[in-house]
Amino acid sequence: MEKNSKNNRRTFLKDVAKASALTATVGLVSTSTALANNESDLVVSNNNEHTFLTFPYLQNLTSNSVDVMFITNNKAYSWVEFGISNLTQKAHTVSDGFVTAYNRINCIRLNNLEPNTTYKYKVVSKEIIEFKPYDLKYGTKIKSDEFTLKTPKLDEDEVSCVIFNDIHDRPYSFGDLLKVNNRPFDFAIMNGDMFDYEEDEAQIIRNLLTPCASLFANNKPFIMLRGNHETRGKFRSELKNYFSYPTNEYFFSFTKGPVHLTLLDTGEDKPDDDDEYSGIVDFDAFRVKQALWFEKEMQKPECKSAKYKVVFMHIPPYHSGDWHGTLHCRKVFSPLFEKYKIDLVIAGHTHRHGVHLPSKDHSYPIIIGGGPKKGNRTITNLIANKDKLEVKMIDDSGKQVGEYIVTG
Ligand SMILES: [Fe+2]
């Protein structure tokens, strides 16, 4: 895949046409890795026919709710139809008395779900072709195929996830790495640098949403954590619109089963005043803000009572050179990891995979995933229950290249 995002209308429409064709013809598919590699078979659509630009993709799945996200090409009124045996329920978003409409990027929460239950759902969208004060005109209505999702049970005794890092605009890597992953997972974490920089919506759709939504995210949620490359490019501020975060912050924490997970946004790798950033970043203050927040999180009963505490962060505080980002993470976060006895840090950034055991510098292990070139990519999986938390790292040939176990 080319390093730079292609930004021309023709390529975008090809992707749109492919995504639309897939949506119209198949349900759960696993063929999306071909999307960016083989465009010659795609039908180019040059009209503005109302269409989905992505499969639906899940965020924030809990025992009783989930956010279903999807994007359309034209402004529309969109909703989700869902149910256990039939799609008898309908969800749309209401805010300030308005039913959300005349928008393209949808994030629709399904509430009051039953725990440990499989739901069927589809997304529906009605184009709005004219929106005059007293005369709103609908256009084409489209429906996706039917998908499924399963809510976790209450008080889960086991939790599992896969972790991707440093994909760097290589959409085929998601499929390549999922193929070699050898364990089931409940959700995925994107641990930073999914992109080289943020250029436009087409890049986000083509290089992340389409492969992930078609491979697994219509059925299992994922979390998008920023790395030091998501902070770059003219579309950097729009990135958040495409995901749903519990507190609308890029950093947050939650407990799942026996594990308390904290996700930190480690920001840029060079000083804020580096010429490369042209005076428009302020990450030192952002990291300090997160450190203050982290200390409060650690006081919460749900964190104190968790069997395992795991931190996800793109730039690790050690084993990643001596640039400012690493050293500042070391300064503001590492003492807190020591103080609150973090069991494990999972990171990326260096493009050199490794399991770094506790040492005189850090009493917690640091697992760093590789990437982004073929032969250097890894996927990491984590499974935890009351007896142990086990992490395995697999390279893109299927070989296990790292392992760490924390006993309960
Ligand atoms: Fe990277």
UniProtKB/TrEMBL annotation:
Keywords: Hydrolase, Signal. SUPFAM superfamilies: Metallo-dependent phosphatases, Purple acid phosphatase, N-terminal domain. Its EC number is 3.1.-.-. It is an enzyme of class 3 (hydrolase). It holds the Pfam family Metallophos. Residues 1-36 form the signal peptide. Gene3D superfamilies: 3.60.21.10, Purple acid phosphatase-like, N-terminal. This is FN3 domain-containing metallophosphoesterase family protein.
